[in-house]
Amino acid sequence: MTSNMRARPQSLLARPQFVSNRIAHPLAWRPALASRGYATEPEAKNAEAKNGEANEAEDPLKKELDQMNKEIIELKDRYLRSVAEYRNLQERTKRDMQAAKDFAIQKFAKDLVESVDNLDRALAMVPEERLKSSEKTEHLQDLVSLYEGLKMTENILMQTLKKHGLERFDPSVDGEKFNPNEHEATFMTPMADKEDNTVFHTQQKGFKLNGRILRAAKVGVVKNQ
User: Fold this and answer.
1) CB under 8 Å to 7, separation ≥6 — which residues?
2) Which ranges of the chain does DSSP label H, i.e. alpha helix?
3) What family does the entry list (predicted)?
4) Distance between CA atoms of residues 174 and 177, nearest Å
5) What is the pLDDT of residue 43?
6) Other C-beta atoms lying within 10 Å of the C-beta of residue 109
7) Taking the complete model, does pTM exceed 0.85, yes or no?
8) Residue 198 has what pLDDT?
9) Which residues in the chain show pLDDT less than 70?
10) Sign of the C-alpha dihedral computed for residues 23, 24, 28 and 30 taken in this order
């Protein structure tokens, strides 16, 4: 029993000696660490240097790519603007050409309406009761024939002018309200049976060329107050 008790302390004393040997020689474990794949300090520095060089190489490429994308966006914007401007130019040119076509005869039409007025005055000089008279004298028959010929000429002329956009209008026929854009008031008079600003008489008929006023109608307007 005494020998066993003496043996145990010796074994206990032997363990710290083994541990102290491992602690006293830590460099002995470096090969094992290296074999497990852990990088040493010089290798880590080399890896960092390589990463830095790779980043420096990538930065110019990234900047160049960003610049190219920016230029593409600018070129696309310029292209879209150019297309829009070209289309607007086409529309303006089309409208201008149509307007030039519609109103090319404006000066000619202004000169022509005077002749139409004279023809209208000639027809107005024939009293309506003479045309409806039951008398069949030679003189009256000649007058009726002349009137019918002039009326037919006027109708054909107005149809031809209408084909080219020139139309005549008489605001007193439907009792229109006075419109300063289309009518020219030459006189005013009170009329109890009509409302104010009603056109009751046409002194000179108006003309429109493709919907635009070529000459305003000269009219008489009701003014009760």
Assistant:
1) none
2) 2-24, 30-35, 41-102, 106-124, 128-131, 138-163
3) Belongs to the GrpE family.
4) 9
5) 63
6) 21
7) no
8) 93
9) 1-58
10) positive
